[in-house]
Amino acid sequence: MFEKILIANRGEIACRVIKTARKMGIKTVAIYSDADRQALHVQMADEAIHIGPSPANQSYIVIERLMEAIRQSGAEAVHPGYGFLSENARFAEALSAEGVAFIGPPVGAIEKMGDKITSKKIAQEAGVTTVPGYMGLIEDAEDAVKISNQVGYPVMIKASAGGGGKGMRIAWNDTEAREGFESSKNEAANSFGDDRIFIEKFITQPRHIEIQVLFDSHGNGIYLGERECSIQRRNQKVIEEAPSPFLDAATRKAMGEQSVALAKAVGYASAGTVEFIVDGDRNFYFLEMNTRLQVEHPVTELITGVDLVEQMIRVANGEALTITQDDVKLDGWAIESRLYAEDPYRGFLPSIGRLSRYNPPEEVATETHVVRNDTGVYDGGEISMFYDPMIAKLCTWAPTRAVAIEGMRVALDRFEVEGIGHNLPFLSAVMDHEKFTSGNMTTAFIEEEFPEGFQGVTLPGATLKRIAAAAAAMYRVAEIRRTRVSGRMDNHERKVGSDWVVSLQGEDFAVRIEADHDGSTIAFDNGSTLRVSSDWTPGDSLATLMVADAELVLKVDKITSGFRLRCRGADLAVLVRTPRQAELAGYMLEKVAPDTSRLLLCPMPGLIVKVAVEVGDEVQEGQALCTVEAMKMENILRAEKKSVVSKINAAAGDNLSVDDVIMEFE
After folding, report:
1. Fewest beta carbons within 10 Å, which of 256, 260, 632, 661?
2. Which domain covers residue 275, as residue numbers?
């Protein structure tokens, strides 16, 4: 077995590989750019080597820099993780020439399957059903428009060497095809050093389901079930699960056998994933094969008990698989939620900054319940603009899908992240959404269910009532502590009133608190009561309460006359006031937000790539105004209404912060 491996990646996947290597007794070498000097993977590895400036195209994807690090470290093998150089045949060849093992598939398999155009041709020759499209190289934007019309809108414009949603666009008309081609080409060049693009038919109402395969170099291969990856935004997966709630045993077997046959046809060895689009009648169409470990691999590990990273290392060491297809049993259900540094309230745009609080839920592993968190950050760490915005992958497992979802709800409620915009509220909202809980979702889920963007969660009345009871009990505890600190009275509890009005989400709850040593009974004005007990103390940022014998988890911040409470995706300003204070509050004027309708504000920290208009131009609704690049993604900002550009404050090459004014309108 290898004594030392180098991990040619960063972030959570580097940390993930280090954990398995440590379990196997293998020493690890991390690499890092300027931006990653204090990164978690650097701290976890046995040694770390600096490889260059912060941009990935000057560090993590520069093959010669990595080869220098490998020579310096004396590593015998390299695990590429995913993204970056994980599917780069030239990198694998360079390792082979150096006598270093590549913990991934053979170069030939990477070349054939890692290239989406070639892989589709091979799949067609192997009798695998594929999506209609144009597999040739596309010269320019006008050529893309012509081909899109031949294939028929809508079309998917994809980078041949792409992955992780980079270099992918859906086009419904000529304008979108033209713009999509340019953005996909640019993203592909920046992320993968390969700007080739192809176009295929976009199947409406699709489900994205993929098969995990595992092969050794002795001709043995198996599939380890499927993963449902239909909940996506910008063609990048957000929530995955295994198995799929949609597949039946016959379809699973057919997809698995086709995947194994395809992998055998290219002499595959290592872990890999065959991706399919599945329609409402369970017809499946081959999309691509990812010749690497997938981001969502933990859910497969949780339902099969197979450590895929360990298997990759063993295969690279020349060992034969000890698992046969008959040994693969799917046990229970696993859910993965990807925590991203992006603001769901601002169209899921990237967010950067320092994590002033990062407190994930405790990891648990029992026979009936698992909570797993694969992460690459830590409390006080920084989220950089240079890399993918994923912070962590939170996973839960349980014997049934319903229990796994409930476990995820609680885990998300317990996950504390402060200092940056993040998608925790959205993830919580999905867990309670009927389309998700029923398993009846497609890749259009976010577009269909949140057409105007994510505006937060409106909690049902019963949940609001429970939160109101909890807030009243917590406020009483805080008031008791305040009177103790002030020293106003020895018998402090007599100074804390019993009658309060709790206001949240536009509703008022008049309550009376009857407290004892074990908790509080909260009586509402309609005669109903709720019993609340907790060991929460003022200042704690997380509260776990029992309300009517059911657990309630709240993220807590103090505000004037109450709390900011977050629960199940809702972000609530909860005011707890005396009846007289509540009455007088009705006369207070509400603060009016400033009018920014005549300004184009930068929605995220990023680099201005292109300004598409000039001062004096009349722009129409939906017209492209400029392009901002952040975290390896290009974002086209469009006009919200017809207007005239009066001033432009930024130019291509400028780095902007959130809400910097890019341009102004008459």
Report:
1. 661
2. 123-128+204-331
